[in-house]
Amino acid sequence: MSQSAPVLQGLWEYVKSGQEDVLRSPYLPASFAFLAHVLLCAPFLTLDALGSVCLRVRSWRMTAGSGPPPSLSRWLECFCRVLYKYVTVVLPVTALFNTLINLKLPDVAPSCWQLCVEVVACLLLFDMLFFMWHYVMHRVSWLYRNIHQMHHQHHTPFALAAQDCSSAELLSLLLLSLSSAWMVGCHPLSEALFHLINTWLAVEDHCGYDLPWALHRLLPCLGGAPHHHAHHSLQTINYAPLFTHWDQLFGTYRPVNE
């Protein structure tokens, strides 16, 4: 490896080594999305389990006085619904999408700067695309009834419920994230990091906890769980999934303390 090679070159060569068939698989994006979602929900499953016995943990819930956290059986039911939709709809359709894209694996890793720029660009683009799609689903009654209403069965969401929606909406979420990475022209490493961050932010948005160390406390540009919890409660505000600027520009932003 030459001295001018990117810092991430060693990591990229390790990932590619003997794994090119896996990386090129059209089934990888949906499989990665499902596994990442489930694994990133695990800390909140632990919090929900502790919340039934620990008042300190329960005090972090945004509905602290409304009863115990969701039960293990509710988590399991939600897991089965999401898994079924991935297997029957999301996996085959996204496989077709990725076959048409014909992914190429570059020899050179991105620089750290390129990685950061591409990830931020993807997050901003996805936030804009989903804000528009989410707003339309709420404004067009047919779309709301047939596509989005299922997600709003959770008036008090929990982490796994971030992807508990209709098959059409779940598919649209993944296609919007894949399209964002494709439009930005991401390196595969940048795309993988974008999907991980995007999934974590969606899980945190739905977790039902206003945690002292949550990302929205560190980065005020993020809405976080309180912002999205308000959307589930009122449904006419706070449509953006990640940031708050689109809601502020279109007059649909509601600060959590109001």
Automatic annotation (TrEMBL):
Annotated Gene Ontology cellular components are: membrane
Key words, A-Z: Membrane, Transmembrane, Transmembrane helix
Ranges for domain Fatty acid hydroxylase come to 119-252
What molecular function terms (GO) are annotated for this protein?
iron ion binding; oxidoreductase activity
Transmembrane feature ranges: 32-55, 82-101, 113-136
Spell out the subcellular localization from the entry. Membrane
* InterPro entries assigned: Fatty_acid_hydroxylase, Sterol_Desaturase_Related
* Membrane in keyword set: yes
A GO term (biological process) for this protein? lipid biosynthetic process
A Pfam family annotated for this UniProt entry: FA_hydroxylase
Q: Which residues form a coiled coil?
A: none
Main subcellular location: membrane
This chain's protein is named Fatty acid hydroxylase domain-containing protein
Give the species this sequence originates from: Neolamprologus brichardi
